[in-house]
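Example 3.2
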Amino acid sequence: MSRVIVIGAGLSGLVAANRLAGKGVDVTLLTKGIGGLQLGQGSIDVLGYAPDRVTNPVLTLSAIASARPAHPYAAIGAEAVHTGIEYLKALLGDLLVGDAEANYQLPTAVGAIRPTCLVQPSMVAGNVTDGARFAIVGLRRLKDFHPKLVAENLSRTPLPDGGRLDARPVMVDVPARDGEVDSSGLTYARAFDDPAFRDRFAAALKPQLNEGETVGLPAVLGLKDRGAWKDLSEKLGHPVFEIPLPPPSVPGMRLNEALTALAKAAGVRVVNGTRAVSARVEDGVVKGVTMATAGAPREFTGEAFVLATGGFESGALAMDSYGSVTETLFGLPLQGLDDGPLVHGDYWSAEQPLFSVGVRVGKDMRVLDAAGAAVHPNLFAAGGIIGGSSRWAEKSGDGIALGSAVRAADSIVEELA
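Structure, written as tokens:
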């Protein structure tokens, strides 16, 4: 038996497990897979739109918390989000940079500009500014990145702070593996880990660059070698930045691998590859969670439980053909179900109410019922399972994950002391 069971290995689950273990708590992390970080951009979104583009995420989320009491940030609070940001930066060392009070504005793989709070150092040179000159470089054998699309969209898009930049496409044909004509981003990332490959790539690209250009590349500049992008920049004699690709995301893999390795090094027991199928509750208190392990189901018991299972995207929330929504492990009460139809037909206007469905939490991240009482005194929630916001539209999901994970972990430590 571990003292705390964390269910889910996305950003919130990994941060909660690391923080608990760092405070001396015995933790088991249960996960059916490798978590959702690989599906993201490899950066940390705290608040991007509210609904207009946000420049200071922590300041703006304080205003949201005051105006919208059902929003997760109202319970989490700006202080916990700021603490989560600083904790994650300290935990990961040089893998993330940024400021809780400022958003970067970075190019996407379709040439849009996205606001985000913490980024990997390999992305910083892409922060858009008036008059910047970008060479957007495609890899001929990588089919998920189209430099002409990116460059032309960036050139025609007004920048958030005004002005425009100039971008042009460049194509390079350097195979990641001999004889392979259709390589994945991961294959290229492993190739860029090799200094000899970087030498060959720089030799092919450098003659095509113009003086004063900043080089934008698909985000495949190394998986294990954190300095691969910097070495390539020095070889080219130009600043270099990465543009994240559609999932799976190499920058997301970097975050996942680093946080998982840190958790294991801190003593977290990680049980991977099995699904949580049921929970045992006695006298209102959660006693254990059963996993569908090979051979026979296995129960994991603890004194406190952190539900970090995500939302609809992970199967933690499910809607049947009658429109009934359920939380699939504990059968928890959900907020957002009584506000009218969950899905409307005008898909280009107001957001779908369904996206805001999830559990309600108190300031200590305990799951609450409609009357505001704890459903189970030892059950806490973190991340995407918490309702009250459209995380994808606001670009607030990572901030919610960080703040709620820190709040839940610290509440549990205080409770167990």
